[in-house]
Design brief:
Length: 105
Amino acid sequence: MAAGDIEAGKALFASRCASCHSVGPMAASGFGPQLNGLAARRAGSLADFDYSKEMKQSGLLWDDKTLAAFIANPGKTVPGTKMRFWGIGNERKVADLIAYLHTFK
């Protein structure tokens, strides 16, 4: 995957993700899980979010490849996920979003 543009990813997060997910020092799970430290996190592992059984049992470890697949098509990557999102089919935008998420350790 090509390196993404962090600023473009920030704008995309604000317009497509921030209504359900949060990042940054005050991030907390709400309608969706908070996304700080997402890289190398086991899917469905935050104690403060009620994931679907399918997400908890998916066995996924979030890395660039699994994140890209999930962002592109959540329901195909984890059938039964609670995430109600059509996905982002543009690979450049996916790379930008992942680059932005990597800034939150």
